[in-house]
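Protein entry
_____________
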Amino acid sequence: VVCILQISCAPLAADLRSGDPDGATPLYRSHHFEELDNDVLESLFGTDSATGLSDQAFLEAFRLVRIGVYPEEADAAVLCDYSLGEELTDYLLSVAFGTGGVVQNVSMES
C-alpha cells in the first residue's frame, strides 16, 4: 500500500504545484478553504489560513479512500480516490492511471 500511496500521491503534488489555478488539486484546496469551518481547517491542517498552509501539509491531510481497477479501460485502468474525510466532504480527488501505468489525469469528483 505504501508504494501505491507514493505513486498515486505524486500526481496530486504535481497538479498542486503546476501553477494552474484551474487544476483539480488547487480547485479542491480553494473550494474547501471557502466551505469548511475555521475549526475544521485548524484541526485538519493546523491553520485556518490558506496562505499559512504549506503544500506538504495540505497533501498529508488526504486519505486514500478507494482503489478501483478497470483493466478494460485503457485511460483509467486504475483509479485512486483521495478525500480529506468522507464525513467532511463529498468531493474526491481522483488519480487515473492508464494500462501502462502512466498518469492520465487528476480530477475532482463528487
In short: The mean pLDDT is 92. The first helix runs from residue 2 to 16. The CA atoms of residues 62 and 84 lie 5 Å apart. The first strand starts at residue 63 and ends at 69.
